[in-house]
C-alpha cells in the first residue's frame, strides 16, 4: 500500500495495468495505491503508475485520470475530473463520471450517471448506458442500449442492435447492420443506413426527421399528436387517421392535426403506421410467456440450452402468429426470433467464458501469493525432536 499526498485535483496516469483496475474516490487529498508489482513516478501534482497485476486506486474526486492500457476489467466510480482511456481488454464499468473519452474497449461497457460527454471510438462488446448526458460512438460491434439520455446520441457505425429510449437531444445513426428500436425521442432524428428494421414508439419534436431502413419500419404514433408524414415502401399499411391522405407510386403522404413535426420514412420492406397503445394486453403477455425459460442449467452447455428452450418458445409463438396473420408473416417472425436466440446463446457463452477466465486469474493470483515473497513455497517447519530417553 502506497500513499502520496496531492492537491484536490491531481493528474493521475496509469500507463499499464496487467490485471483488473479499480478506481474509487474519497474526501482526502491523497492517492492511495494497492497493486501487484507497483511502479510509481511522482512529479509536481502528478503521478504515473503501472502494475504487473491488479491495481486499486483511491483518488481525490476531482482528479484527472489518464489510462493507457488495462489487460483485465476496469471499474471507475464517482470521478468528477476528466477521464481519458486508451485500451481495455476486459469489461468496463463506469458510475458517476463527469466526462469520459475512450479509444477502445474489447469487451462490454456499462455506464450510468455520466454528467458530461461519453465518447467511444471503438467498442467490441455490448453497451448498456443509463442516465447519461451526451453519447458519441464511432464503431459499435455489439448491441447498444441507452436509456434516459439528457443530450444527444451520435452513432456512426453499428453491427448490433440499437435501442434508444427517452433521449432529450438529437439522434443521429449513419449505419446499422441490425435493427433500431426508438422510444420517446425529444430532439431531431436522422436514422439512415439501417439493414434491418426500425421501430419507433412515441411522438417526435417539432422538427424534420428522417428514417431509412432496408427492412420494415413500424411506427406506433400517439393519438392526437400532430404529424406531417411521407412514407415510401413497396407495401404500406396505414392505420392512422390521416388528413389529406394521398398515395402515389408506393409513397403515402398525409398529416395529423396542425403542427411542425415532419417525418420521412423510407423502407425496403413494409411500413406499418398505427396508433400507440393499440396492442392488446393479452398479446403482450402471451409473447412474453412464449419466450420464458428457467435458469437451472449448467454453464458448460449454456448456449445450447438457451437455444433449445427459446426455439421451443419460437415454435409455439410462430404457430399462434400463423393462425392470426398467415404463414408468410409467421415465417418472417420466426426467422427474426431465431436470430435473436442465436445471438443470446452466443453472448451467454461469451459471458460464461469471461467468468471462467476471471476465476482462473483469481486462482493463479492466489497461488502466486501463497508461493511466498520470492516465488518459492514457505520453508516447512522442522520435524519434532525425539524425546530424550531415560538413559
Report on this model:
This protein has 391 residues and is of the alpha/beta class. Among the domains are: 126-275, no CATH class; 281-365. The chain is built from 3 helices and 27 strands. The chain has helices at 281-290, 302-325, 327-370, and strands at residues 2-5, 11-17, 21-26, 30-35, 39-43, 46-51, 55-60, 64-70, 74-88, 92-105, 109-123, 127-140, 144-149, 153-158, 162-167, 171-173, 180-185, 189-194, 198-201, 208-213, 217-221, 227-232, 235-238, 243-248, 251-256, 262-267, 270-275. It has a 27-stranded mixed sheet that branches. A hairpin with a 2-residue loop joins β24 and β25. α1 packs antiparallel against α2 and α2 (302-325) runs antiparallel to α3. The radius of gyration is 27 Å and the shape is elongated. 29% of the residues are buried. The model is unreliable at 278-300 and 387-391 (pLDDT under 50).
Can you tag this structure with a few keywords?
391 residues, alpha/beta, 27-stranded mixed sheet
Question: Summed up, what is this model?
Answer:
It is built from 3 helices and 27 strands.
Topology summary:
Blueprint: E1 2-5, E2 11-17, E3 21-26, E4 30-35, E5 39-43, E6 46-51, E7 55-60, E8 64-70, E9 74-88, E10 92-105, E11 109-123, E12 127-140, E13 144-149, E14 153-158, E15 162-167, E16 171-173, E17 180-185, E18 189-194, E19 198-201, E20 208-213, E21 217-221, E22 227-232, E23 235-238, E24 243-248, E25 251-256, E26 262-267, E27 270-275, H1 281-290, H2 302-325, H3 327-370
Helix pairs in contact: 1-2, 2-3
Q: Report the biggest beta sheet as strand number plus sense, adding barrel if it closes.
A: 27 strands, mixed
Q: Round the Cα radius of gyration to an integer and report it.
A: 27 Å
What is the structural class?
alpha/beta
Percent of residues in β-strands: over 45%
Secondary structure: number of strands: 27
Number of H/I helices: 3
The topology string of helices and strands comes to EEEEEEEEEEEEEEEEEEEEEEEEEEEHHH
Q: Mean pLDDT, nearest integer?
A: 83
Low-confidence stretches: 278-300, 387-391
Helix content: 10-25%
Tell me, briefly, the overall form: elongated
Q: Distance between the terminal alpha carbons, to the nearest Å?
A: 56 Å
Amino acid at each position: 500500500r502506497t500513499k502520496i499526498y496531492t492537491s484536490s485535483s491531481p493528474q493521475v496516469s496509469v500507463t499499464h495495468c496487467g490485471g483488473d483496475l479499480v478506481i474509487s474516490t474519497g474526501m482526502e487529498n491523497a492517492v492511495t495505491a494497492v497493486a501487484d508489482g507497483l511502479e510509481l513516478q511522482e512529479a509536481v501534482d502528478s503521478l504515473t503508475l503501472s502494475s504487473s497485476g491488479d491495481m486499486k486506486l483511491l483518488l481525490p474526486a476531482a482528479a484527472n485520470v489518464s489510462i493507457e492500457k488495462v489487460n483485465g476489467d476496469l471499474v471507475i466510480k464517482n470521478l468528477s475530473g476528466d477521464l481519458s482511456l486508451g485500451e481495455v481488454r476486459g469489461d468496463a464499468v463506469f458510475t458517476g463520471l463527469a466526462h469520459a473519452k475512450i479509444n477502445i474497449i474489447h469487451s462490454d461497457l456499462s455506464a450510468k450517471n455520466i454528467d458530461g460527454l461519453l465518447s467511444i471510438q471503438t467498442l467490441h462488446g455490448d453497451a448498456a448506458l443509463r442516465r447519461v448526458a451526451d453519447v458519441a460512438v464511432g464503431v459499435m460491434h455489439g448491441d447498444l442500449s441507452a436509456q434516459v439520455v439528457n443530450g444527444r446520441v451520435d452513432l456512426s457505425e453499428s453491427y448490433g442492435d440499437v435501442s434508444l429510449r427517452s433521449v432529450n437531444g438529437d439522434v443521429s445513426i449513419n449505419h446499422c447492420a441490425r435493427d433500431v428500436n426508438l422510444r420517446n425521442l425529444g430532439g431531431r432524428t436522422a436514422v439512415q443506413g439501417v439493414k434491418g428494421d426500425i421501430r419507433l414508439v412515441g411522438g417526435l419534436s417539432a422538427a424534420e426527421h428522417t428514417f431509412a431502413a432496408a427492412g420494415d419500419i413500424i411506427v406506433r404514433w400517439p393519438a392526437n399528436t400532430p404529424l406531417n408524414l411521407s412514407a415510401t415502401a413497396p407495401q404500406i399499411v396505414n392505420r392512422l387517421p390521416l388528413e389529406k391522405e394521398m398515395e402515389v407510386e408506393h409513397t403515402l403522404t398525409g398529416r395529423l392535426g396542425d403542427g411542425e413535426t415532419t417525418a420521412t420514412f423510407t423502407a425496403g420492406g413494409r411500413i406499418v403506421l398505427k396508433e400507440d397503445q393499440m396492442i392488446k394486453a393479452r398479446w403482450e403477455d402471451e409473447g412474453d410467456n412464449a419466450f420464458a425459460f428457467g435458469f437451472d442449467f449448467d454453464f458448460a452447455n449454456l448456449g445450447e440450452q438457451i437455444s433449445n428452450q427459446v426455439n421451443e418458445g419460437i415454435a409455439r409463438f410462430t404457430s399462434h402468429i400463423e393462425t392470426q396473420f398467415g404463414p408468410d408473416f409467421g415465417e418472417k417472425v420466426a426467422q427474426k426470433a431465431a436470430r435473436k436466440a442465436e445471438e443470446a446463446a452466443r453472448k451467454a457463452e461469451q459471458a460464461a467464458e469471461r467468468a471462467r477466465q476471471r476465476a482462473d486469474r483469481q486462482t493463479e493470483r492466489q497461488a502466486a501469493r501463497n508461493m511466498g515473497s520470492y516465488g518459492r513455497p514457505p520453508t516447512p517447519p522442522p520435524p519434532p525432536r525425539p524425546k530424550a530417553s531415560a538413559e
